[in-house]
Amino acid sequence: MMKQTALTLLLVAMASTAQAACYADYKAKRDDPLKLHYGVIELSDDVCDNRKDARRQIRDRLEANGWSLLKVQSIFDDTGLEERKESAGKFFLRY
Fold this sequence. Notes:
By secondary structure, this protein is an alpha+beta fold. It has one domain. It has helices at 2-18, 51-63, 82-88; strands spanning 22-30, 35-43, 68-76. Strands 2-1-3 form a three-stranded antiparallel beta sheet, sandwiched between helices. The protein starts with a helix and ends in a 7-residue tail after the last helix.
């Protein structure tokens, strides 16, 4: 009984970790006239552990909206989301 309970708890913990949201903050620009922005974007689960794939996903979404990605600042989970909201302003979870 104890092993079954422990296994159940482990599976629940793993499932919630696998479903945890993943975000990145970034800097982007638009030319003519020059505009810069800092933003926060939600990433798909499959790129959370791969910075190169995350960068590609962010770049593609931004380019579709006329922006060029300058830099991915960091990749983080829900715990870092609220502290970046004010700084990102209208670019908070926009893309």
